[in-house]
Amino acid sequence: MVAELIKGNEIAQAKRNEMKEEVRKLKEGGIVPGLVVIIVGEDPASLSYVRGKTKACKQVGIDGKLIELAEETTEEKLLAIIEQYNNDEACHGILVQLPLPKHISDTSVIEAISPEKDVDGFHPINIGRMMTGQRAFLPCTPFGIVEMVKAKNIQIEGKHVVVIGRSNIVGKPVGQLFLNENATVTYCHSRTPNMKEITRQADILIVAVGKKEFIGKDYIKPGAVVIDVGINRKEDGKLTGDVVFEEAEEIASYLTPVPKGVGPMTITMLLQNTILSAKWSHQIEGVH
Ligand SMILES: Nc1nc(=O)c2c([nH]1)NC[C@@H]1CN(c3ccc(C(=O)N[C@@H](CCC(=O)O)C(=O)O)cc3)C=[N+]21
């Protein structure tokens, strides 16, 4: 079997074209969705990611503002800037790029963002709302993964989803979202014995371990759907995932590539959340 690729970049582009139209209509009603992206420090990879985010905003007509702060910026100063945008009606979404410098607490920063502008879906209020099935901003990478599986008309209800990884940003919430879609969900992680025995039961295997080409074909049930969330750089500078692509391709039914898989979906769901936030702030209903 040769797996069919789930091309995140194409699904993302189709969604962005629809969003363009949605934003155009909102603007006719005087609403301009606005996103503020804040980065602290000069890490080149992080800078390139946030520039990608503001470029994507422009593509769909969202007013994207990038704030670049020096590495030495104090936590107090960052919190003051967040407070300024919490109180700015033209701003519907605030994203502070992670990781932050060591002298700034991620938790303090995430909790300082108004839950109504937390388009990353990282605030404990949004995590709680997601868990209890209330209206919430869903975290972008997990949300994008569900959307790309749905775009391929792959059934989720009743399927066994195995998540490898338990980060707050990807692993934990992606399992929750698939549970909300009526899947049976199992989590594996670094302390799981006999991991292969579990992952080989997965109908849908979601790999978010952060280790280059860690998952080979021996972890995959023939015909499984494999979602590779990893982004790692190889010695030759090329990007690769947490899955050995050529091996997974031989055995899976569907597979996401890296790059052009989950990454572009993450950014697209950020745009989606910003548009939703603009609607919700004007009491316009909008669904995920
Ligand atoms: N507050 C916050 N929110 C985030 O959503 C967030 C963050 N911090 N910190 C870093 C991670 C990483 N992340 C990516 C999003 C898209 C691509 C992406 O589009 N990647 C392209 C390739 C890009 C390239 O060529 O380097 C692809 O996979 O095709 C990658 C990485 C969002 N993150």
Automatic annotation (TrEMBL):
Q: Which GO terms describe its molecular function?
A: methenyltetrahydrofolate cyclohydrolase activity; methylenetetrahydrofolate dehydrogenase (NADP+) activity
User: Coiled coil: present as a keyword of the record?
Assistant: yes
Q: Does the keyword Thylakoid apply?
A: no
- Per the database record, which ranges form the Tetrahydrofolate dehydrogenase/cyclohydrolase catalytic domain? 6-120
Its EC number(s): 1.5.1.5, 3.5.4.9
- CDD domains per record: NAD_bind_m-THF_DH_Cyclohyd (cd01080)
NCBIfam families, sorted: PRK10792.1, PRK14186.1
How is this protein named in the record? Bifunctional protein FolD
Species source reads Pseudalkalibacillus berkeleyi
Q: Recall the taxonomic lineage recorded for the source organism.
A: Bacteria, Bacillati, Bacillota, Bacilli, Bacillales
Gene expressing this chain:
folD
